[in-house]
UniProtKB/TrEMBL annotation, chains A, B:
It is an enzyme of class 1 (oxidoreductase). GO terms for biological process: pantothenate biosynthetic process. Belongs to the ketopantoate reductase family. Transmembrane segments: none annotated. SUPFAM superfamilies: 6-phosphogluconate dehydrogenase C-terminal domain-like (SSF48179), NAD(P)-binding Rossmann-fold domains (SSF51735). InterPro entries: 6-PGluconate_DH-like_C_sf, 6PGD_dom2, ApbA, KPA_reductase, KPR-Related, KPR_N, NAD(P)-bd_dom_sf. It holds the Pfam family ApbA. It catalyses: (R)-pantoate + NADP(+) = 2-dehydropantoate + NADPH + H(+). Residues 6-162 form the Ketopantoate reductase N-terminal domain. This is 2-dehydropantoate 2-reductase. The lineage of its organism: Eukaryota, Fungi, Dikarya, Ascomycota, Pezizomycotina. Catalyzes the NADPH-dependent reduction of ketopantoate into pantoic acid. PANTHER family: 2-DEHYDROPANTOATE 2-REDUCTASE-RELATED, PROBABLE 2-DEHYDROPANTOATE 2-REDUCTASE. GO terms for cellular component: cytoplasm.
Length: 343, 343
């Protein structure tokens, strides 16, 4: 069998560990697109400390390292594009913008290795003949310095085709695409991604954690251990958000089950001060995945007529924090002049 | 007429300007209790740049400057104690703790020159025979450095007796106490405090601004001009909070009137980036007046059965931010161990 040609966009912790598993499995040749860490990785390769692949991986490179999105070529189209960037649709370039040049219509499968709800929709609209796959990852992997990755929690990921708009079953061929990728991923023998034919439910389940803990961390600066110690943060913010998201999921046809919130509350350990990604982004003044993690559940709730008062307030707070990040990047300008509705 | 003996606790912008007006009016001798700025003021006096009293006031001192709360003496009891500190009842010492040593039962009138709701209640419980007066101030006055005060917005303040618990009219003698203080204050001829016999309503009206703009500034870090430019911050946070507080006020017997929210939204200028006090406190990691500005309206809403979903969420967020300020002061300890409800 010919090796799969795989393009990975995003060389942070998640993208790098995917590149490592796929490339070392021997069934794929990985091209990885790097931005801020390109120079470091070109010079020294990746340095990886992994609980599954080994603690002393040095000077490692996949098949090819590039600095910008490569153009698709008819003779060697990419079989898969794995998108492992942050998903911030309120800022250009969007995921559709990013992958367009590298994609071959009807051929390339797109795997979204990203958080959030309804992230497949713009891709299904833009590329209706390409399989769109979803990966819900629970890996713990962080790029601590450019090119240096610490992988400290199991690479546990569920992969399946996104349902088509309207909730229909995806074509059987798309399941095969997902299965083929999972096999190539697991070929290294050290990790176990799994095929998931109900990835929509899996995504809602992960959203319980992200929409609550991530949001509260971003607005308050607290880690999840302190949130739990305080008790009121869990009782008055985390659990109310989870219950609202669960109600939206139910209205969207996904039953997350009795007591799931209480289990999700206890996901993180209480012996370390872990700050979820959106909290880390907020602390650094970085852009956050507000729209896919909170905005989409809110819009879904409005569409379905489910009241989500806590989530609505959290969403507005996060957009306000995001506004500062946008302003510092020149993406929003404060006009100290008359003219606006409230000037 | 003998001069009034007045103790002012708190020598920030508000307390200093009160000391200046009362002392220079000639009808009062002011003792002021200073903490962080005691050494600077003892050495150089206050330096004041005031839009009403003069721009070049140097080396000014009231009758007496002290470093700790003085004890009451039978021969010269304080006629008034003006409390101009921040009001943070979730942290010791409380206002009751502070003023106890200096107060003479049945004699001293207590004036709370502070923000927030229900701040009189612990005082009425602790000192049932002392008149408790309320001052709702709109002054703009800031201590920019120790002992250096910029007074840049009119000293506009309404003073009246707090209604007794249960909403009864305060004794007529307490109105006279309020009037006498206002007269002493205005005797300098440069400022105009006014007597307010419906100070409860005035306090709710000021709460509209504080519970909304102050809270949103504390949680998001935005100034009020940017909140208004963004529009969504006003539409989705500021106005919803104001509408909820207005509904609680109505249930508490105070009708704030048609369109008051839209007027309060426009109180601050849009040509400068003004961050309300609680936002400044949050940015500096200081303790905030969360309980009197947001906690009390929430508890009032619960008592009266008024739903305040936005305010409830904002309150929980602020308590979480406050928790960090408490932890940094050793007032809360994160126990990375088992035992708590969510460990």
């Amino acid at each position: 069998m010919a090796k799969l040609r795989i393009l990975i966009i995003g060389g942070g912790g998640v993208g790098t560990m995917a590149a490592y598993a796929l490339q070392t499995g021997g069934h794929a040749d990985v091209t990885i697109v790097l931005r801020s860490n390109f120079a470091a990785v070109e010079r020294d390769g990746f340095t990886i400390d992994s609980i599954q692949h080994g603690h002393d991986i040095k000077n490692w490179r996949p098949h090819r390292i590039v600095q910008s999105i490569p153009n698709a070529t008819p003779e060697a189209p990419f079989d898969y594009i794995l998108v492992a960037t942050k998903n911030v649709p309120d800022v250009k370039p969007t995921v559709v913008d990013l992958i367009s040049p590298a994609l071959t219509r009807t051929h390339t499968s797109i795997l979204l290795l990203q958080n959030g709800l309804n992230i497949e929709r713009p891709l299904q609209a833009a590329f209706p003949t390409n399989p769109i796959l979803s990966a819900v990852s629970l890996i713990g992997a962080t790029e601590t310095h450019p090119g240096i990755v610490r992988h400290d929690d199991t690479d546990d990921c569920k992969v399946g085709p996104f349902p088509l708009p309207g909730g229909n079953t995806p074509p059987a061929a798309w399941q095969a695409d997902a299965r083929r990728l999972v096999q190539a991923y697991n070929a290294c023998g050290r990790v176990g991604w799994t095929l998931d034919l109900d990835v929509k439910a899996t995504r809602w389940r992960k959203l319980l954690y992200n929409s609550s803990f991530n949001s509260v961390a971003a607005v308050t600066g607290l880690d999840t251990a302190r949130m739990r110690m305080s008790e009121f943060v869990v009782d008055e913010l985390v659990l109310p958000v989870m219950r609202e998201v669960k109600a939206v999921a139910r209205a969207a046809g996904v039953e997350l089950g009795e007591g799931v919130e209480e289990r999700v509350v206890r996901v993180d350990p209480t012996d370390t001060a872990f700050v979820p990604s959106m909290g880390q982004d907020a602390a650094k003044g970085n852009l956050m995945e507000v729209e896919v993690i909170v905005g989409e559940p809110v819009r879904e709730a409005r569409r379905l007529g489910v009241p989500v008062p806590t989530l609505e307030t959290v969403y507005a707070m996060l957009k306000a924090v995001q506004l500062k990040a946008k302003e510092s990047r020149g993406l929003w300008t404060a006009e100290f002049a008359e003219g606006a509705k409230y000037s």
